[in-house]
Amino acid sequence: MCFSVINENILFFSLPTVQCLEMTTKRKIIGRLVPCRCFRGEEEVISVLDYSHCSLQQVPKEIFSFERTLEELYLDANQIEELPKQLFNCQALKKLSVPDNDLSNLPTTIASLVNLKELDISKNGIQEFPDNIKCCKCLSVVEASVNPIAKLPDGFTQLLNLTQLFLNDAFLEYLPANFGRLSKLRILELRENHLKTMPNLKELWLDNNSLQTIPGSIGKLRHLRYLDLAKNRIESLDADISGCESLEDLLLSSNMLQQLPDTIGKLKKLTTLKVDDNQLTSLPNTIGSLSLLEEFDCSCNELESLPPTIGYLHSLRTFAADENFLTELPREIGNCRNVTVMSLRSNKIEFLPDEIGQMTKLRVLNLSDNRLKNLPFTFTKLKDLAALWLSDNQSKALIPLQTEAHPETKQRVLTNYMFPQQPRAYLGS
After folding, report:
1. What PANTHER family does UniProt report for this protein, alphabetically (predicted)?
2. Domain residue spans in the chain?
3. Which among 79, 207, 249, 414 is most buried, taking Cβ atoms within 10 Å?
4. Is the confidence at residue 128, as pLDDT, over 50?
């Protein structure tokens, strides 16, 4: 093998058997570079090799010439079916990247890569990790998404330096019982699996699974900040959720929840709460205790009213309660003075309280598909309002309103040609 240095960043290789070896300028070549073995009797020190997108069917043998110095190997997007044993003699290897190939297994010889820190085997046909993966003590990042992996071996829980684990779109149903030993794990992604029980961890992304219940033990995750349980089959949320005292984002969209526990009000650090697309008929009064809540979405439920305590959500900026059965809003809603976007589309609201005029930071308000006859005169105080939606087929974001006297109370109200709102004419009705 010969190579020449054109400048200090770019290397060009002359390979008799592999024509598609591309070194990217973004990946630093670490080690001493010797001009050419043809002219000097010294061995090249190569630490990074990139064979990505080369249509390779096997690992090039040239790699093994650098087994003492090679630290990063990229074999992305080829048609490699197996990793040869000789590859695992490269004990200096710190990063092995073989995503988007045709691998069906991960050899047990991977145990010899004692310095390996990052492993990417995503988008292959690998069904399991060998138990002796535990020997790769330095592993901190494992990307194994899009593989038919049904379970993790017990040895996996001995990877105590693991900080990031990605296992999206696999066949996982369970995680090892002592998975909680991975105390350094900060990012865990388990989207699109078949999980039936939940691991006891610090950061959980469990959306799009088949979970039906959340065990009370989740309350032990006192450092949990982000919990995504959307698109499952969860029917109830355990009261012990209150133990997640550091929780900032709680996503429960698209489940089968019929109620929220009163203890949800103890999640004092919560800034985002999404419970849209469930079966909620009411919200607990304790919702008002979430003083730091900035985004709240309870759309697509069966709510007939909102608790007056919603007025205590002084940090709220975005509020959505579309597609419910609301007939009115509590007067206390006016105390949510930091709300800039509020959507109440497709409800049965007949009138709005005068206090809505106190929400002076409102910029977008969606009231389409309701039963309003007019708007309170206090709407004139909403100087920042840039979009007021009263109909699904509205041509302009903001249509001028004119003052009229209410025919019964004689109070001043605001109206235009869209009032009174008519229920949407559904096909077949």
Report:
1. DISCS LARGE, LEUCINE-RICH REPEAT-CONTAINING PROTEIN 7
2. 45-199
3. 207
4. yes
CA–CA distance, 15 with 240 (Å, rounded to integer): 62
Mean pLDDT of 184-208: 74
Strand-pair category, 118-120 with 249-251: unpaired
Distances (CA, A) of 135 to 98, 116, 158, 161, 290: 20, 10, 8, 12, 46
Other C-beta atoms lying within 10 Å of the C-beta of residue 149 = 21
Q: Pairing relation of β-strands 11-14 and 2-5? A: antiparallel
CATH number of 45-199: 3.80.10.10
Q: Which residues pair with 387 in a beta bridge?
A: 364
For residues 332 and 312, what is the distance between their CA atoms, to the nearest angstrom? 8
How many Å apart are CA 75 and CA 55, to the nearest integer?
A: 10
188 within 8 A of 207, measured Cβ to Cβ: no
What distance in Å separates the CA atoms of residue 325 and residue 302, rounded to the nearest whole number?
A: 6
CA distance 189 to 385: 40
Residues 6+ apart with CB under 8 A from 151: 128, 172, 173, 174
What is the Cα–Cα distance from 76 to 95, expressed in whole angstroms?
A: 12
Residue 198's pLDDT band (cuts 50, 70, 90): low
Segment 61-70 mean pLDDT: 92
Per-residue pLDDT at 221 exceeds 50: yes
C-alpha angle with apex 236: 230 to 242, nearest 5 degrees? 85
Q: Tokens 């004139």 map to which residue?
A: 380
- Range 326-329 contact pairs with CB under 8 angstroms and sequence separation of 24 or more: 328/352, 328/353, 329/353, 329/356
What SS3 class is residue 133?
helix
Q: What pLDDT score was predicted for residue 16? A: 30
C-alpha–C-alpha distance, residues 304 and 325, integer Å: 5
Query: Please, are residues 337 and 315 in contact by the beta-carbon 8 Å criterion?
Result: no
**Collapsed DSSP state (helix, strand, coil) of residue 308:** helix
Residue among 99, 218, 105 at smallest CA distance from 166: 99
Q: Is 44 exposed, middle or buried (0-12, 13-18, 19+ CB in 10 A)?
A: buried
